[in-house]
Amino acid sequence: MEPRHGARYDEILALARATEAAGFDAFFRSDHLMGVDPRDPAYRPTDCWTTLGGLARDTRRVRLGALVGAATFREAGLLATIVASVDEMSGGRVELGLGTGWYEREHAAFGIPFPPTGRRFDRLDEQLAVVTGLWRAARTGTPFSFDGEHHRIDDNHSPPHPVQTPHPPVIVGGTGPKRTPAIAARYADEFNGALGRGDLADRYAVFDRACEAIGRDPATARRSAVLPVACGASAAEVERRGAVIGSELMRAHAAIGGPQHLVDRIAGLADSGADTVYLHVYDIHDLDHIALIGAEVLPHVAATEEGALR
After folding, report:
1. Sign of the alpha-carbon torsion through 96, 100, 102, 108
2. Burial, 234: exposed, middle or buried (Cβ in 10 Å; 0-12, 13-18, 19+)?
3. Beta-carbon contacts of residue 156 (< 8 Å; ≥ 6 apart)
4. Which of 133, 136, 155, 170 falls 20 to 30 Å from 189 in CA-CA distance?
5. First to last CA, the chain
6. What are phi and psi for residue 247, nearest 5 degrees?
7. Is the pLDDT of residue 64 over 90?
């Protein structure tokens, strides 16, 4: 389950606990400091990983992560340490989702450099090499160094130690046809195909070929998709929750309807190859929405073994 708007910590915690109580597998945050409308004064920016650290202590079962973090926001060595710290705080429930970052106006508003697209991909590639390299060094007890264009690690003898072995799962994804699947093939435990549009199976096939090109078995990675959702037990509930989505792009790909409609949409994503589905929710105060999906949709997904619902 992933909320789509900024909020105070107590609001995010209430949603995460509702997600846990409803039986979902995970609670993931977005990594943003600004909403889609840059002039929206109602957006409440909070740091993604600071919030996840709080949730690590205030939840008990759900896995936690970002879908996905921006590689532009944090230096690689610091990110490796932050994630390892939250992994320890959670008892080994953290996953690292990472992408290039895309929201230029957000970067400008908070004074964060925003390089051109190619350089952001280069930075993401190096960042994943450093993060996973530091985590592996923690297991082997060997010092780690890295000399890249964007990141440099000089003979680190005290790398961060995550709880999970060999390290927290890494998620990489998006719709890019070349570099995204190539980077995911090298580093990711999960490839996220983003919105479950008609070409989702094609994106998974491109990822499979990228794995095969480097000698990796594609079956060693999960495949996930994103599904905006507005589910209701009545037509009035469906209309009210659907209206909150707002964005025409998201509405075009959203599951807006009753529980059976959502079950069918998840089954369609499974048919395209997804084994994990992330549900985007929009009204973070509507905890009855979470309870309805948990009670009326989640049992059907579990019964048909269509995978994890997050």
Report:
1. positive
2. exposed
3. 77, 134, 137, 143, 144, 145
4. 155
5. 4
6. -60, 130
7. yes
Ordered by where they begin, the domains of the chain are 2-226+275-309 (3.20.20.30)
Which pairing describes strands 152-156 and 144-147: parallel, antiparallel, or unpaired?
A: antiparallel
Q: Is the peptide bond before 41 cis (omega within 30 degrees of 0)?
A: no
Q: What pLDDT digit, counting tens, does each position of 127-141 carry? A: 999 999 999 999 999
Preceding amide of 68 cis, omega within 30: yes
Please report, for residues 186, 227, 254, the alpha-carbon distance to residue 239 in angstroms, rounded to integers and kept in the order given.
Answer: 43, 17, 13
Kindly tell me the sign of the dihedral angle through the C-alpha atoms of 113, 152, 190, 87: negative
- pLDDT surpassing 80 at residue 216: yes
Q: Which residues contact 99 (CB under 8 A, 6 or more apart)?
A: 68, 69, 70, 71, 124, 172, 173, 174
